[in-house]
Amino acid sequence: MWWLLRRRRLRIPCSSLLPRRAFINARVKWVRDRGHDLAVSKEKHLRSFHALKNMLFSHRHNALPLSLIAEKRDELNLPFRALRFIRNHPSAFTETSNAVIRPTQQLRLIHNEELQAYSDCRQDSAQRLARLLMLTRRRRLPLTLIDRIAFDLGIPFDYVTTLLSYYPDYFDIVSGCNATGAGDLHLELVRWNEDLATSALERDAMSRFRVYRKGLPLEFPIQLPRGFDLEKRVREWMDSFQNLPYVSPYEDGTVLEWNNQVSEKWVVGVLHELLHLLVSKKTEKENLIRIGEHVGLPEGFKKAFSRYPGIFYISNKIRTQTVVLRECFKRDRLLVKNSVMAMRYRYISLMHKPAADQIAKNEVDEEEEEDNEIDRLKNEGF
Q1: What does DSSP assign to residue 98?
Q2: Packed helices 261-277 and 232-242: angle between N→C axes, nearest 10 degrees
Q3: Model pTM greater than 0.90?
Q4: Half-sphere exposure of residue 326, counting CA atoms within 13 Å on the CB side?
Q5: Exposure pattern of 301-324 as b/e (b: 16+ CB <10 Å)?
Q6: pLDDT tens over the chain, length 382 residues
Q7: Does the residue 184 lie in any domain?
Q8: Which segments carry the region annotation Disordered (predicted)?
Q9: d(Cα 62, Cα 47) in Å, to the nearest integer?
Q10: Is-contact 277 153, C-beta < 8 A?
Q11: DSSP 8-state secondary structure symbol assigned to residue 193
């Protein structure tokens, strides 16, 4: 059955005809992009918020004692004490007199709509997860790694029961061995799906050109921030890089010689496709490094993030390094978002919304201030 999982054979020119230049010895400086930084920073604490929300709704009565949430602080990755985090989001969480935390009606509404969104895009989620496994050498990834990137991938936190169980012809959970020899669990692709083995760059080319044959040159979309200027020799190198044959990330690029540019273009293509598979079109740099180990990327591949600043942007916001796929954003705005991302923006709005009683108090204060101003003007003869 091994043939069901094999990658397609490469269809590229003979390696002896390919250029063998490595990336030129020129410094490509990092330039801050405020728009992309904002795209990262506005989701600050969203994962922690989502984790706490999921924990509440996973409980039978949708309520948990504050003491239990405090004990789970590390698991939830709360940025500070549980009580402070909860009180920072009064429109989402309520605290009873006996220190029990419950979701507000607003949070319940968005959560229910999110569940519907997950249900509506279940097929799309399964295909993106299958494509992720198709990029790896063994067609499998540890469940611990899937858990780590599930949020960025846009699959529900309980994906084992709410997603995998619907696609037994796609996925299987198998045992494996880690470095210590102890068994762990992996998510494995059941069989190769040729219909899914087309990258986002190839699909775009097929939609724009009537005729496209695999192995032809494909250019990566390049977006440089205003004021960013590459050295002349770097621009010339980038032009030659763009004109090289494009090897699909679903091909077995590990057979390429690592001292030529086509292999480097394959690496960039793999990273480009990985980010395209994520609904957020961005993720922590560490996540890509961990996935790269399973894909078979060469040592030092992470240098590609800084070598190609027109394709990738590295943000240093929220105390981590986040890799952003530039082409998918216009400043801080995600150009194409599915229903799952749309729901997350609603969560962000709720996180920054004051409680209903605070809104009412503000309205009363504004009315009193207006009445006082009118009285003052009358006293002054206006």
Answers
A1: T
A2: 80
A3: no
A4: 18
A5: bbebbebbbbbbbbbebbeebbbb
A6: 444 444 554 544 444 344 444 445 556 778 899 999 999 999 999 999 999 999 999 998 999 999 999 999 999 999 999 999 999 999 999 999 899 999 999 999 999 999 999 999 999 999 999 999 999 999 999 999 999 999 999 999 999 999 999 999 999 999 876 554 456 899 999 999 999 999 999 999 888 876 677 777 899 999 887 767 777 777 888 888 999 999 999 998 877 776 678 889 999 999 999 999 999 999 999 999 999 999 999 888 998 998 899 999 999 999 999 999 999 999 999 998 889 999 999 999 999 988 654 444 444 444 555 455 445 545 655 4
A7: yes
A8: 361-382
A9: 19
A10: yes
A11: -
Number of domains observed in the structure of the chain: 1
What single letter denotes the amino acid at residue 334? L
CA distance 291 to 145: 8
| Listed residue (331, 254, 332, 261) closest to 293, CA to CA | 254
- Tell me whether residue 119 is in a domain: yes
Cα dihedral: 246, 249, 250, 256 (round 10)? 70
Residue span of the structural domain in which 31 resides: 2-39+114-343
Tally of CA atoms within 13 A in the half-sphere of 370 that contains its CB = 6
Cβ neighbours of residue 131 closer than 8 Å, sequence gap 6 or more: 196, 250, 273, 277
> Is residue 287 included in any domain, yes or no?
yes
Instruction: Please report, for residues 23, 27, 87, 239, the alpha-carbon distance to residue 235 in angstroms, rounded to integers and kept in the order given.
Output: 12, 12, 51, 6
Residue 226 lies in a domain: yes
Radius of gyration over alpha carbons of the chain, in Å?
A: 25
Which residue, among 116, 109, 121, has the nearest Cα to 154 in the 3D structure?
Answer: 121
Q: CB count, 10 Å around CB of 382?
A: 7
The single-letter DSSP state of residue 8 is B
Select from 28, 24, 29 the least CA-distant residue to 264.
24
Find out whether 382 and 118 touch, Cβ atoms under 8 Å: no
Please give the DSSP secondary-structure letter assigned to residue 248.
P
Distance CA 277, CA 288 (A): 12
**At 75, phi and psi to the nearest 5?**
-65, -40
β-sheet bridge partners, residue 93? 103
